[in-house]
Amino acid sequence: MSVRLADDRSSRHHRSPRVQPHFDLNLSENPFPPLPSVLRAVNTTLTQANRYPEFLPRRLPAVIAQHVGVRADQVVVGSGATGVALQILQSLTTPGAGIVYGAPTFDGYPILAEMTGAEAVPVPLDVAGNQDLWAMQRAIDQRIALVVVCRPHNPTGTAIPASELNAFLSGVPARVPVILDEAYVEFLGAAEYVDPLRLISEHPNLLVLRTFSKAYGLAGLRIGYAFGSSELIARVRRLQLPFGMNSAAVAAVCASYAAEPELAARTMRITAERDSLRSALCDRGMAVPRSHANFLYLPGPGVATALRRAGITAKSYPDGSARIAVGDPEAGHAVLRALDAHAFRSDIA
Hints:
Blueprint: H1 2-13, E1 23-24, H2 36-46, H3 59-68, E2 75-78, H4 80-92, E3 98-103, H5 108-116, E4 119-124, H6 133-138, E5 144-150, H7 162-171, E6 178-181, H8 196-202, E7 206-211, E8 224-228, H9 230-237, H10 248-258, H11 260-283, E9 295-298, H12 303-309, E10 312-313, E11 315-316, E12 322-325, H13 329-348
Parallel strand pairs: 1-10, 3-4, 3-5, 5-6, 6-7
Antiparallel strand pairs: 2-8, 7-8, 9-12, 11-12
Helix pairs in contact: 2-10, 3-10, 4-5, 11-13, 12-13
């Protein structure tokens, strides 16, 4: 007995330190895997993986168009919303032309501007984390070829009121296309929803951009789309990459549309966890903007560093702020512990 106890004590002294769990909250991913019905649909297509997909996508735009309520010639698809955005920039801008957007924004827009030789024209957000639409409107001159408006905005999660969006779109010159980036539209509440069909009817220069990466949880399949006037979509479709959409896309989208009640329940779980975590952070004195997406923006110097030290990967910004994906309660508790420790250390310092 005494020998065994001594051995136990020895093993405890030499036990390696406990490793903190790692949470990757950087890319605002859906924390849930695809639904079983979606997985079954995708797996079925893999038996035909030796065959090429459609030369140019026809079935997928038709499926999406029927669901959205537009004609198939009003939809363009691509490799995630980023792939579609690249097609838009390549089709509707020229090297040296300007692209106006609120900054900070989705990293893809400044990257795509550089890729296409366009000039990024970032307009700072206001103090509440909203896009300053009137400053953006003032930035539109003859060199501007495209405007990007995110709703909800990335990274703050704020949503422009419908009345302000309508007024802004009415003030944009008809020659300037506008991307309304709705990557997180499924997380909006009913009160914040804006009818996109009315918008594209009233504003022929508008393209509504969406993705299956976020609410639908299909980020790895890279399925995005935009819809708008048939004339504008035709211009973007001219650069459609042959064989560019994988065969699983149609199956995944059809299965996802069929499972929308289940996906809506998941979205509600994510938004409930988001609001609970935000309340806890606000109770700790953090000025976290009210988010309408599946992430939270955590302002303040040192926040990103505190999360990293706790084994949490977050999207960081030059001022030390961070954006974190939400929906996983365990990850949310880890964020609170990390920021509590950060505040404690700050008080001591």
